[in-house]
UniProtKB/TrEMBL annotation:
It comes from Gonium pectorale (Green alga). This is UspA domain-containing protein. CDD domains: USP_At3g01520-like (cd23659). It comes from the Eukaryota. Residues 3-155 form the UspA domain. InterPro entries: Rossmann-like_a/b/a_fold, Universal_stress_UspA, UspA.
Length: 157
């Protein structure tokens, strides 16, 4: 039975560096890798050009589909295209729309890990700084405190 690894991703250099670390230091032949991108309420609201408090997913189906396409594009560019040729796995990609805040994005990640029966969650930390982290929260912090499976957090230099 393959080891299931869940790797939450976003469109940042930090996430990409964490992916590279995971592939070079943690991945083993035969692992089943799942990439997860959560399209949060705030990022979707920005795509629609409306405040997050006014967010309703039915406003514009085309804008929602554009947000999903954007996620697909960065996942291919930042993650799938960077897989070394000797790796024989094809990661499974999950894109989930979430109408929630940072803590709930972490909740979505934890729930997906349970659903997949993941051996662990591997994710990067972001260098937001203490003030931004205080106000915006930390997804990796939420996941590390609430996950029922082991969590590996790749610290950024």
């Amino acid at each position: 039975m393959p080891r299931v690894l869940l790797f939450p991703v976003d469109n940042t250099e930090d996430s990409q560096r964490s992916w590279d670390w995971m592939i070079n230091n943690f991945y083993r032949d035969g692992d089943e890798v799942h990439l997860l991108n959560v399209i949060s309420r705030l990022s979707f609201a920005a795509t629609l050009g409306v405040p997050a408090v006014d967010f309703t997913p039915q406003i514009n189906r085309e804008a929602y589909e554009a947000a999903v396409r954007k996620a697909e594009e960065f996942i291919v560019k930042r993650f799938l295209a960077r897989l070394p040729q000797q790796i024989q796995t094809t990661p499974i990609v999950h894109i989930i729309k979430s109408e929630v805040d940072t803590n709930s994005v972490g909740h979505v990640i934890c729930m997906k890990a349970e659903e997949l029966k993941a051996a662990c969650i591997l994710m990067g930390s972001h260098n937001k700084g203490p003030v931004a982290e205080f106000f915006m929260g930390s997804v990796s912090q939420y996941v590390s405190h609430h996950s029922k499976v082991p969590v590996v957090i790749v610290k950024q230099p």
